[in-house]
Amino acid sequence: MSDAAQPTAAEVRAAAEAIKTALDRHLAAVERRSGEDDPAVYEAFNQLAAAAEAYDELLYDRYDEVTPFEIPGAEETLPPYTGPEEPNALSVLIRRDYAVAEPQRLLAQAQRIEAADDEGTGEEAVGTVHGALGTLFGEFEPDEIASRHKEFGLEEGDSTLWVTAAEEPAGPGEWLEAPFESIDPQHVVCRFDVSAVFDDEIDDLEDIEDLEDLEDEEETDDDLEDEPELDGDEDLEPLDADR
Fold first, then answer.
1. Coil, strand or helix: which one is 97?
2. pLDDT at residue 212 above 70?
3. Secondary structure of residue 139 in the 3-state scheme
4. CA 149 to CA 131: how far, in whole Å?
5. Cβ proximity of 67 and 56 under 8 Å
């Protein structure tokens, strides 16, 4: 970052003061909380997270330093549930991402599907990845594709599943044009995320544990090396026959 674009010392100081104010507000909201899912606490938490993130960015841009703490952002947490206590309907939202890892395999599978539909002629077999994807998802259910994705030349990416509650089922065709726009985050009952990011975190923890085990083994070996070695009978005291 150039010097002209760097924040001023006053801006960094103001961001630090904003964190202090946000901390006071968050503590006050916690002390006055009316229940486990008090919206005031949730709002104060988000304000504190935003203030901390802003300060951290300014501190780094100005002084090339970072804070020793991290407050998860609001996007990493669900807001308190405010939906119906006894929902009469639910919606399940699923997103799965794939990479087309082997286009030729995908095309070959789509051609087999079309050949079977054309009684083995294969004359109308698709020749593009776009067409092959349409054929594949038109033939198989999404869950089956998820379980057999490698057969179709696909590589799994991130996926998420959200379950939301509602008072009444939606009317026919009501949300089909924009299926994900009308979801209220405060009506989400639960969500399940799958990502390689989590696998990386586990691998990092395992690497740390392996390193700690290795260090322990080295320390044990060092202790053994420090122990004096006995050279024959020279270091042994003679037995007293009167004892």
1. strand
2. no
3. helix
4. 17
5. yes
Structure confidence at residue 115 (pLDDT): 86
Residue type, 2: S
| b/e sequence 2-14, b meaning 16+ C-beta within 10 Å | eeeeebeeeebee
Place of tokens 């322990």: 216
Most confident of 16-25, 116-125, 209-218, 232-241: 16-25
95 close to 44: Cβ distance less than 8 angstroms: no
Cβ-based neighbour number of residue 23 at 10 Å: 15
Contact predicate 41/33, CB 8 Å: yes
* CA 52, chain centre distance (Å): 21
Residue showing tokens 């087999």: 112
Residues 77-94: pLDDT tens digits? 567 888 888 899 999 999
**DSSP per-residue letters across 72-84:** --GGGSPPPP-S-
